[in-house]
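Changelog-adjacent note: as of this version, every example in the card shows the full chain rather than a window. The one below runs 134 residues end to end.
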Amino acid sequence: MDINELIDNFEFLDDWEDKYKYIIDLGNDLENLDDKYKNDTYIVKGCQSQVWLVPQVKNENNQSILSFVADSDAIIVRGLIAIIKIIYNNKTLEDIKQIDIEHIFGRIGLFEHLSPSRRNGLISMVDKIKSYSR
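Full-length structure tokens:
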């Protein structure tokens, strides 16, 4: 799935109860993170729930590509991680800098329908990815 398909899927759903169910479904499809990575090195600070994000940078065609695996102990947060992966995973470091995350979150309505603590956690995940891309 790409960003446009993600936005289309959210726009197709009528109410936020259905959108929350969709977010949870996305999280259910997320791979589990090996317990050896669930430590302070990979924890995302600023999240209400525990979130671990493990980056991997590889070089393809003289460009650095960031990929990552992530996990959380909260069901809804696993879905938010899945959304973040659709947006940022397997992108060049330059592409990551160009992503207008506020526009994307605005299109799918995430900021206005998440609690302040979930919003802060989502921003913390994005900030962690951007720090890895530097």
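Structural remarks: Residues 3-133 form a domain with the Sufe protein. Chain: A fold (CATH 3.90.1010.10).
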